[in-house]
Amino acid sequence: MTDLDLRLVRYFTVVASHLHFGRAAAELRVAQPSLSRQISRLEAEVGARLLDRTRQGTRLTEAGEAFLPHAHALLRASEQAVAVARAAAQPTRITIGYTAGLIVTPAVRDLRHKHPDADVRTLHLEWSEPRAALLDRRVDAVVTRLPLRTGGLRVTILYDEPKTLLVPIGHRLAGKESVTLDDIEGEPIPRFPDPEFDAYWRIDPRPGGRPAPGGPPVETIEDKLEHIAAGQAVAIVPAALYAAGIRPDLTTVPLHCVEPGHVVVASRAEDRGRLVAAFHTSARTHLHA
Predict the structure, then answer these.
(1) Beta 51-54 vs 57-60: how paired, if at all?
(2) pTM assigned to the model
(3) What is the distance between the alpha carbons of residues 48 and 7, in angstroms, rounded to a whole number?
(4) What gap in Å lies between CA 234 and CA 245, rounded to an integer?
């Protein structure tokens, strides 16, 4: 049996991708002479020359061409093996994140009941934090609202959530049974720095392709509320977020003929640990509109 050093296999795949030892060494952050020696060690382990250096550059030999797809497969298999082993280690701690207006208590209670050995914690997150909090491992799962950039994440929609219009008490639309986008055609709406979040909650563009009206720039929910209370803007918001009322000088009006929002549970795509999987199940079972 031939024992291959996977570190050397990875070095080979990087050289093969560049066909240049200098660029490969820079990517790997090793000295070029050292990289050459490591490739020679791999060739000795394999028992065949894998790369040739010519005046025109570096090229794969026939043996190198044959070895390359298997080298990639070896590296993928090793990554999967590590992920499976880590998942099987059964971590005993999980941190659940949640954003404003979303109640995770029923799912957290269920998780604690089913896994009494686990240390289940919760952490409130600002509207812009869920993805970063997952990727930097401050939380292991999060209940939040779309939009959410889903690359590298496992995301499941839990339920739909109506959207409503937030206006100051004295606004011309306050007290109406409902409104549509046509009723707020010219109303300014606060703008957030995140383009995706901004476009989603301003419904920009509007049906037919017309742009949504502009509005005062804000970075926090509190700034947005202040602009609305001052009569400088209105806002489209999740109905549940303001159902209980947050300021006496603001009120909501049902917004019809718009797509509802979505509340989701998200975790890191590669995290298949028992507690994360169990929380996904608890969230689907216990969290509803």
Answers:
(1) antiparallel
(2) 0.66
(3) 18
(4) 15
